[in-house]
């Protein structure tokens, strides 16, 4: 498929959907795009054209939520042969005078999502009763950028990223005696490519994996709303809140896992680099080596899959390579120097260079391969060496009437400290950022290990920075609805009070309403702030913190494991030591005792 071609498929009873579809096809020319305009019935006999396609649907309802006549046969056939790897946008037309308002567009949306199609632009339903143009005009205006992005799968003319080996490393290698007679990599699977396409839709196969810390089943949820809480700027990160529908029962303090996807462009670049473009969607079959104990086989490697599906949904292509993978790559280099370099990096003597060249720079698999251009490993040989694409975890920020809310920062570069390399955006945060209302996401509730609000008793000290304040909103919501009186202290940290104080307005209202008795804030970049970090607040208000602790308060810490968690723990030890006249070591023992009693609870991430 060319990078600027797409289909506009319409279903029209009175001609309105057809007219709008014609306009979209015509307007596409001014965006350097080429649209093919067809009605549903014209696709009969060409259903295979829907696979790997980008389509804009414009459809209406007729009767009691039925498809238009020129879409009816296509709709029936679509159920028999669901499209594979389809990207779509859908505009529905209806009339709220009818009982089944938008019945058929809603049914088409549900079917496409259930069959694994990916929506690249938000679904809208226009109402003829109040004026179609109120929805149609802004929908078409906003269509073009998401459409161009969805068509941006790299083709063979796009250059792949290139990196070069450091000359000093090559000079070092020339003086070393590299052992080229190392045992060959042990292959756990025998592989065979078949002529048929792999037709599973996400998350088939993936949902058979063990879900870490699961307390509930994997469920298909729907994005109800996505809100930008903080815009990205030189000073602030871009922060979003997503609300999704769920049939599970969540409570304050709960968290959940999200199954995410690798970036489309990265997946296709890897397929090109491994020369698997033509077989991207072909099924391969793996047979485990009978001499290898089943418990040693990687459980996340699907025995039937396709290269695209494996790279898109099941494998972590950003993980740091283990030495076994480096040895495999060495075996498949046609350039002897490149093979020697990989063998050296996998050796004990090469550990320092391995860290400097690859680990400290967080090189992706694609970048690793670009360092060694003569290397071309068989695709299926890579599978056992790439770890699973694990779920990402988020805390519940609010329980709504319809579902659950959570917040996240969009990570624009996972290796911000490495300036000479191109930015690599976060996998899950980028994927979440691109979700639209009505899109699907797969989630499961995690086991709660004690991070729940303490009702009554000695009260609570809640500490968090950035998005780490999110679970405390649910805590305070819960307290506001309870008849029990609970003494509460909240200490939050952000960069700027006016720019990125997440939920600051809500927390201030809880404070003014008396639900929150102590509300302390730190702003690390505001010049006039008396406290830069939450630890400063703890130190400055040490007597107040001790009063809460002496009354039996439970401590909650939510945030970064390396920064906030360690800093807060150390400051608690300092406050305890100074207040009680004990050593820091004795203070650490007190905190350790509080952990065992369930009075020091953490929800932290690395």
Offer a concise description of the structure.
This protein has 606 residues and is an alpha/beta fold.
Structure in words:
The protein has 606 residues and is of the alpha/beta class. It has helices at 16-27, 69-80, 103-114, 133-150, 167-174, 264-273, 307-314, 323-331, 336-345, 351-359, 365-371, 379-382, 427-433, 470-480, 504-512, 534-540, 542-550, 561-580, 584-597; strands at 5-11, 34-39, 54-60, 87-94, 118-119, 124-127, 189-197, 219-230, 239-245, 255-259, 282-288, 304-305, 392-395, 398-399, 403-409, 440-445, 460-465, 488-494, 518-523, 554-560, 600-605. The chain has a 7-stranded antiparallel β-sheet. Strands 1, 2, 3, 4, 5 and 6 form a 6-stranded parallel β-sheet that branches. It has a 5-stranded parallel β-sheet with strand order 19-18-17-20-21, sandwiched between helices. α8 runs antiparallel to α9 (336-345). The longest helix has 20 residues, at 561-580. It is globular and about 85 Å long. The mean pLDDT is 89.
Distance between the termini: 40 Å
Strand arrangement within the widest β-sheet reads: 13-10-16-8-9-15-14
Which secondary-structure class do the elements indicate? alpha/beta
Please state the overall shape, judged from the principal axes of the Cα atoms. globular
In total, the number of strands is 21
Task: Give the topology.
Blueprint: E1 5-11, H1 16-27, E2 34-39, E3 54-60, H2 69-80, E4 87-94, H3 103-114, E5 118-119, E6 124-127, H4 133-150, H5 167-174, E7 189-197, E8 219-230, E9 239-245, E10 255-259, H6 264-273, E11 282-288, E12 304-305, H7 307-314, H8 323-331, H9 336-345, H10 351-359, H11 365-371, H12 379-382, E13 392-395, E14 398-399, E15 403-409, H13 427-433, E16 440-445, E17 460-465, H14 470-480, E18 488-494, H15 504-512, E19 518-523, H16 534-540, H17 542-550, E20 554-560, H18 561-580, H19 584-597, E21 600-605
Parallel strand pairs: 1-2, 1-3, 3-4, 4-5, 4-6, 17-18, 17-20, 18-19, 20-21
Antiparallel strand pairs: 7-11, 8-9, 8-16, 9-15, 10-13, 10-16, 11-12, 14-15
């Amino acid at each position: 498929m060319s990078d600027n071609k797409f289909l506009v498929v319409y279903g029209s009873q009175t001609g309105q959907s057809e007219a709008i579809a014609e306009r979209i096809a015509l307007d596409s020319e001014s965006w350097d795009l080429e649209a093919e305009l067809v009605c549903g019935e014209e696709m009969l006999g060409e259903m295979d054209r829907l696979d790997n396609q980008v389509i804009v649907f414009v459809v209406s309802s007729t009767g009691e939520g039925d498809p238009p006549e020129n879409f009816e046969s296509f709709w029936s056939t679509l159920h028999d042969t669901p499209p594979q790897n389809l990207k779509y946008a859908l505009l529905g037309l209806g009339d709220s005078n009818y009982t089944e308002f938008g019945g058929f567009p809603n049914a088409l949306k549900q079917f496409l999502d259930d069959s694994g199609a990916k929506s690249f632009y938000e679904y809208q339903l226009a109402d003829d009763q109040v004026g179609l143009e109120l929805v149609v005009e802004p929908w078409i205006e906003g269509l073009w950028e998401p459409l161009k992005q969805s068509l941006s799968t790299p083709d063979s003319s796009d250059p792949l990223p290139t990196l070069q080996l450091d000359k000093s490393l090559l000079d070092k290698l020339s003086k070393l005696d590299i052992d080229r007679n190392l045992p060959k990599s042990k292959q756990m699977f025998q592989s065979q490519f078949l002529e048929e396409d792999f037709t599973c839709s996400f998350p088939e196969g993936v949902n058979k994996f063990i879900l870490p810390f699961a307390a509930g089943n994997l469920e298909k949820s729907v994005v109800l709303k996505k809100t930008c809480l903080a815009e990205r700027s030189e000073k602030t990160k871009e922060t979003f809140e997503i609300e999704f529908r769920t049939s599970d029962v969540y409570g304050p303090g709960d968290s959940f896992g999200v199954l995410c996807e690798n970036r489309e462009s990265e997946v296709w670049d890897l397929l090109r680099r491994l020369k698997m473009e033509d077989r991207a969607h072909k099924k391969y079959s793996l047979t485990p080596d009978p001499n290898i104990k089943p418990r040693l086989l990687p459980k996340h490697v699907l025995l039937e899959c396709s290269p695209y599906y494996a790279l898109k949904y099941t494998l972590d292509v950003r993980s740091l390579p283990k030495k076994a993978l480096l040895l495999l790559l060495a075996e498949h280099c046609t350039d002897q120097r490149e093979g020697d370099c990989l063998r050296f990096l996998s050796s004990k003597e090469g550990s320092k260079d391995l860290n400097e060249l690859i680990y400290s720079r967080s090189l992706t698999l694609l970048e690793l391969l670009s360092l060694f251009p003569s290397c071309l490993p068989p695709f299926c040989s890579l599978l056992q060496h790439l770890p699973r694409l694990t779920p990402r975890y988020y805390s519940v920020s609010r329980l709504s009437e319809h579902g659950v809310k959570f917040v996240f920062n969009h990570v624009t570069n996972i290796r911000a400290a490495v300036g000479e390399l191109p930015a690599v955006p976060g996998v899950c945060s980028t994927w979440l950022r691109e979700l639209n209302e009505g899109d699907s996401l797969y989630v499961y509730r995690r086991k709660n290990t004690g991070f729940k609000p303490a009702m009554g008793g000695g009260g609570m000290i809640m500490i968090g920075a950035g998005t780490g304040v999110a679970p405390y909103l649910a805590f305070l919501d819960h307290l506001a609805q309870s008849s029990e009186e609970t003494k509460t202290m909240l200490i939050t940290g952000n960069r700027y009070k006016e720019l990125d104080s997440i939920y600051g307005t809500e927390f201030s209202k809880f404070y003014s309403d008396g639900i929150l008795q102590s509300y302390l804030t730190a702003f690390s970049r505001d010049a006039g702030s008396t406290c830069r970090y939450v630890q400063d607040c703890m130190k400055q208000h040490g007597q107040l913190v001790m009063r809460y602790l002496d009354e039996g308060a439970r401590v909650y810490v939510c945030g970064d494991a390396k920064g906030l968690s360690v800093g807060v723990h150390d400051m608690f030890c300092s406050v305890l030591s100074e207040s009680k006249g004990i050593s820091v070591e004795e203070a650490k023992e007190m905190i350790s005792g509080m952990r065992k009693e369930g009075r020091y609870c953490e929800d932290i991430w690395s």
